[in-house]
């Protein structure tokens, strides 16, 4: 968000005291539709004087709480802040950032240590956040407000927030960059939660499928049918990868199944080879630890948590469906 400068307000505040309001700094609007008839200029002057007094009192209450950076939530009912309010806030030396989205309020409060304020009478100093510096900066034509040196109440346990600025030539490229960045951060998050990697390209799913298919031969009917069906379901992952890569999915999955049966558990779908290949650590062979005779791995890995979460969620979904005894059709 950009700092509001239409009223000549400040764009840099040191030792900032940050407040976030969810009410409007504009003349109140009645709940019902009405018309006001003004007969002469004296009545008009009285209306304008009441408006100035109302807004000035609100600005003074904000300043009295020692707030010098004000974040204003976006309003759909009326203007969140008008020019007269901005003028009063500028005279009081308060930096204003308006049009904060509703879904960003919780994140901003956690990051800055402030609390959302829904009414001017509730605007007190204990609900403000603190930071060493709040300033508006410019980078490649884009302007945004940067908050640095945030002082949280419990710094040992409080989350630390870092912003990443993504740039793109147009909205489509920017959205793609945001999705790619989100995927990369999710991978890191998975590795932090569970520090383990699996060969990618569907190798992990095929290995589990092969193990379940072998175990199904030792089970009695009807358990063997369930085990075999679960094994077949896991093969959907390499089939989908092969189809998305434009490969012959039947040939690829058949070759993967045969090589996994021989103990090559690191074999997965390879786009580089146009078929199957070793997905293990780059430069090492197909088996854990690598071997000189085996082909070099392609370095395609994935977090273990991704596969385990997918299998757990899929299993829970199937269990929920199996608990359904009957379906009531309705129009």
Automatic annotation (TrEMBL):
<comment type="subunit">
    <text>Heterooligomeric complex of about 850 to 900 kDa that forms two stacked rings, 12 to 16 nm in diameter.</text>
</comment>
<protein>
    <recommendedName>
        <fullName>T-complex protein 1 subunit delta</fullName>
    </recommendedName>
</protein>
<dbReference type="Pfam" id="PF00118">
    <property type="entry name" value="Cpn60_TCP1"/>
</dbReference>
<dbReference type="InterPro" id="IPR017998">
    <property type="entry name" value="Chaperone_TCP-1"/>
</dbReference>
<keyword id="KW-0547">Nucleotide-binding</keyword>
<dbReference type="GO" id="GO:0005737">
    <property type="term" value="C:cytoplasm"/>
</dbReference>
<dbReference type="InterPro" id="IPR002423">
    <property type="entry name" value="Cpn60/GroEL/TCP-1"/>
</dbReference>
<keyword id="KW-0143">Chaperone</keyword>
<dbReference type="GO" id="GO:0140662">
    <property type="term" value="F:ATP-dependent protein folding chaperone"/>
</dbReference>
<keyword id="KW-0067">ATP-binding</keyword>
<dbReference type="InterPro" id="IPR027409">
    <property type="entry name" value="GroEL-like_apical_dom_sf"/>
</dbReference>
<comment type="similarity">
    <text>Belongs to the TCP-1 chaperonin family.</text>
</comment>
<dbReference type="GO" id="GO:0005524">
    <property type="term" value="F:ATP binding"/>
</dbReference>
<dbReference type="InterPro" id="IPR027413">
    <property type="entry name" value="GROEL-like_equatorial_sf"/>
</dbReference>
<keyword id="KW-0963">Cytoplasm</keyword>
């Amino acid at each position: 968000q950009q700092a509001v400068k239409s009223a000549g307000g400040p764009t840099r505040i040191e030792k900032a005291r940050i407040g976030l309001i969810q009410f409007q700094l504009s003349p109140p609007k009645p709940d019902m539709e009405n018309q006001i008839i003004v007969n002469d200029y004296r009545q008009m002057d009285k209306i304008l004087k009441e408006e100035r007094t109302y807004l000035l009192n609100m600005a003074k209450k904000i300043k009295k709480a020692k707030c010098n950076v004000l974040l204003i939530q976006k309003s759909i009912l009326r203007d969140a802040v008008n020019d007269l309010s901005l003028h009063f806030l500028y005279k009081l030396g308060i930096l204003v950032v308006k049009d904060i989205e509703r879904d960003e309020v919780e994140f901003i409060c956690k990051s800055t240590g402030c609390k959302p304020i829904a009414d001017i009478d509730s605007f007190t100093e204990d609900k403000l956040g603190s930071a060493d510096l709040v300033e508006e900066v410019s980078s490649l034509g884009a302007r945004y407000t940067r908050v640095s040196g945030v002082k949280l109440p419990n710094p040992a346990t409080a989350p630390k927030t870092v912003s990443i600025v993504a740039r793109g030539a147009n909205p489509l490229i920017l959205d793609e960059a945001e999705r790619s960045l989100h995927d990369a951060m999710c991978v890191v998050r998975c590795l932090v939660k569970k520090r383990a990697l699996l060969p990618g390209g569907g190798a992990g799913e095929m290995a589990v499928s092969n193990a379940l298919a072998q175990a199904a031969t030792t089970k009695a009917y009807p358990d063997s049918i369930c085990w075999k069906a679960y094994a077949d379901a896991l093969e959907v992952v390499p089939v989908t990868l092969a189809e998305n890569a434009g490969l012959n999915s039947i040939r690829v999955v058949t070759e993967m199944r045969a090589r996994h049966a021989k103990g090559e558990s690191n074999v997965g779908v390879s786009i580089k080879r146009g078929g199957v290949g070793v997905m293990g650590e780059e430069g090492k062979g197909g088996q854990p630890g690598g071997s000189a005779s085996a082909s070099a791995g392609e370095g395609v890995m994935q977090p273990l948590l991704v596969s385990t979460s997918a299998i757990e969620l899929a299993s829970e979904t199937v269990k929920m469906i199996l608990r359904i005894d009957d379906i009531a059709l309705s129009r």
